[in-house]
Amino acid sequence: MNLFDEQIGYEISFREVELEKDLEKLHQWHHQDHVIPFWKQNFMLPDYKVHLQKLLADQHQTLYIGHLDEEPMSYFERYWAEDDVIANYYDAEVGDQGIHLLIGPDAFLGKGLALPLVRAMTALGFQHAGTKKIIAEPDIRNKKMIHVFEKCGFKAVKEVDLPDKRGLLMFCDREEFLRRWDGVYYIQPSDA
């Protein structure tokens, strides 16, 4: 999926993670000071490889590298909520999807890029015709990301004690998203 975002002047694109191609890059990103507190995946490389292999084998999610003008700079996990631990915390509906993300290199921080990236990944999720809601559960301490999700159209639902963090469960409704971002991206629903 390639989208030109006029607000930031970059083309945003996503491709699925490939183990050998992306292992060292993702390992490095998970060791960044701004990532460690929220992801807690700063494992040694052999352990990180096993972890990434497990994530890639998990059929309820798809992992992506996000690019700006073809430069890799972010990591996303898009998952089916009903098959995820989050389904224990709300009445997940068939088609609900969730997202996790991080911006890797420091050079991309503080430039207003998180909102366009979240917006583009949310638009990608809504291309699935059966998806009426995208969810997120950012760490309750991550006020910057909570603010970004709110600006994108996510609404806070409740705090949840997940196995790895205390998160804020947030929902983004398809109709609200399309109303808010009409004309920014064209979303053509499919069954993919």
From TrEMBL:
Alphabetized GO MF terms: acyltransferase activity
Coiled coil: none
InterPro entries the record matches: Acyl_CoA_acyltransferase, Acyltransferase_MbtK/IucB-like, GNAT_dom
Pfam families: Acetyltransf_8
Pathway participation: Siderophore biosynthesis
SUPFAM superfamilies: Acyl-CoA N-acyltransferases (Nat) (SSF55729)
Keywords noted in UniProt: Acyltransferase, Antibiotic resistance, Transferase
Highest taxon of the lineage: Bacteria
Positions of the N-acetyltransferase domain: 12-175
General function of this protein: Acyltransferase required for the direct transfer of medium- to long-chain fatty acyl moieties from a carrier protein (MbtL) on to the epsilon-amino group of lysine residue in the mycobactin core.
Annotated protein name in UniProt: Lysine N-acyltransferase MbtK
UniProt organism field: Alkalihalophilus lindianensis
Species lineage: Bacteria, Bacillati, Bacillota, Bacilli, Bacillales
